[in-house]
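User: Sequence for Olfactory receptor below. Tokens please.
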Amino acid sequence: MESFLTNDSGLPPFILTGFTGFEDSQQWIFLLFGALYSVSIVGNCLILFIVKEEESLHQPMYYFLAVLSVNDLGVSLSTLPTVMATFCFHAREIAFEACMAQMFFIHFFSWTESGILLAMSFDRYVAICNPLRYSTILTDARVAQMNLAVVLRSFFMVFPLPFLLKRLPFCRANVLSHAYCLHPDLIHLPCGDSTPNSIYGLCIVISAFGLDSALILLSYVLILRSVLAIASREERLKTLNTCVSHICAVLIFYVPMVGVSMAHRFGKNSLPHLNTVMSVIYLFVPPMLNPVIYSIKTKEILLGTQ
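Assistant: Structure tokens for Olfactory receptor:
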């Protein structure tokens, strides 16, 4: 752990923080994070195992779910080293390059999750609004192409962020607000003009999260219109029930994400712990709850766990 946090690049290190004011309760916070990581890692690995082993799950909806689980594992593992170092070993210094790498992976997996949720909404749209062509539209090759496009989009969006930060001078105490590195936190630290960083960050947030959420909303408007055309009330409820897991996954991802964005921009001085709490919810809750939600609401996965 010490070698991971050692700074050999000559660039200024960053100081990670836990929950300031709760130093006497760090061991309980460590246990909380340990429980969150355990549920997330075990739950998502279980989803991947069931999807792989159950031949009945070898279809587009569950392929997307498997990719979502891989991404959620990435989110958890990208924060785990520094969170454990901060709360377990009290090692709060992280090298500049290590911080940039962690920031890259955290935001890469966040943008990838948004794209996967959009792809899953398209899957639900085709399954409900055009069921007769479902197997011809969402072939295995097309599902793979969609997932690859999501990953490449996220990579090219996030790739410039470390380089934009590296060009700026850091000349004061580089104390972070969290036990991990986030771009909205880092852009407040340089002595130089970070306006280009802020503008670029805002542009990719709007072009990714904004566009994805709008398209997800549009897909559900079309789904709802199609469902309302079904005569039987029972059939309408049965059809809508196939979307419940995805709707929950969308809400537990986008609501905390909006909360983090608002907290960084408007709540930084009003509530000292608001940023920390919202970031914890944003990064730890979706990877933990996604496998739970899909296991409870999806009969095939629930049977696979028994």
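The CA atoms of residues 94 and 126 lie 46 Å apart.
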